[in-house]
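Why show two proteins at once? Because comparison is the fastest way to build intuition. When a single record is shown, students tend to memorize it. When two are placed side by side, the eye starts asking what differs. So, the first record is below.
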Amino acid sequence: AVDAAVRARERADRLADKCKKVVYPLSKALRAAGGFADLEVVRHARVPLVKASFRGVAVDVVPGNDLAVVNSRLLRAYCGQRDCRRLCLLAKRWAGARGLNRAPDGFLSSYAHTLTVLHFCLVEGVLARVDIDRRFGTSDQTLKSSRSVTSESIG
């Protein structure tokens, strides 16, 4: 198990190194695409990314993250149940008002607060579990064939 964890960490480190080379061209491509504002490259984060707002909504764009689309769909599926979305937004606002949603400062990220709410709701039986493989058609083959963003693909 330790060997697998070390190999996974090494793969993540190699991906982060590749992403560092892509974030500036990605930022330039997003600016040219239109609709994005307040672009900020965060090159030296554990996972390099571009922070931006898109039509007034704060977004983080992470190159090379093959699971991001599936993850977003999963969050949407859970947040479509009952009042889950409102509860997640309430927790994020609560944390933000108290300055507790700044991961670079050692606090949980806004995303982590969302996952915490989802976990609580699942454990308490408030939400029905979503079968990700059946609902979104994901499999190891789907993930292997998904397209990663590279500096070549964005110019």
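Second record. Ask yourself what differs from the first in the token line.
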Amino acid sequence: AAEAETLVHAGDLTSRRVLKDLQSRGNEVLAVKGNCDSLELPTSETFTLSETDVGVYHGTGIQPRGNPDALSKSIAEKLEVDALIHGHTHQRMARMHEGVLLVNPGSCTGVGGGTAEKGTPSMAEMKIEDGAAEVNHLMLNEGELQTRERTFELQ
């Protein structure tokens, strides 16, 4: 994996130590407040990546959890973004919905969203160039790094 320009955390950092560790890496860090956070963090963030407006929102309050209609219509529309990085379900996914790229990186620790069941630890890399987004999920499965790369045409 290449060095990231920006580290994005979609909430549930759960401790200041995790945030300080991310900040110590020398990259720009954008983090939003998750339902498990007591840290003073914004509920949403936006940034621009290769002329594409990207939003970050944990997903608290979206019912049912991870609902793509609510994420694309309510949140992405409100933030005026073409791509939305979200969390809350802790289930990795990347898909286009109603013209918005929705990306959930999963959970770096593998913790389940709304459940005590442990999942596969994962994160995502996102690169945008020439109107296309490349999303690469990295998963640690029984000590072995696995990847799943997908490309999406942005509108």
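One difference worth noting in the second protein: Helices lie at 16-23, 68-79.
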